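Folding Problem: From Residues to Backbone Shape
Fields: amino acid sequence; protein backbone structure tokens
RECORD BEGINS BELOW THIS LINE
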Amino acid sequence: MSIAYVVVTVLAAVAALFAAGFDVVEADKVRETMQGYGLPQWALNPLAALKALGGLGLLIGLAIPPLALAAATCLVLFFLGAVITIVRAKWYSHITYPLPYLALAAASLSLFAFA
């Protein structure tokens, strides 16, 4: 397991957990934004839970590699879906929000192959 993989994976996990925490703390603001994207308000809690589970999966995956692979893949798909949702809603000014999370998850996934 390389140092780069561990560092990037921990950063990706912390970022995903931070994003989930932000969704909980700023729920009203996030729901309003989601409504602008055309998403139902009830979707906030399941989406926040998926981010949190992805972050936890990355951390636990440092000890159980198949879990890290699954978590990183799911986070890449999750944040890719966020990018697609923002583009579909034509809120291009918001595209910068999911990109760092997507980049960290993708880096963790790509470094997994070399770990």
Summary: The radius of gyration is 14 Å. The first helix runs from residue 3 to 25. The helical segments are 3-25, 27-37, 44-61, 65-89, 98-112. Residues 3-112 form one domain.
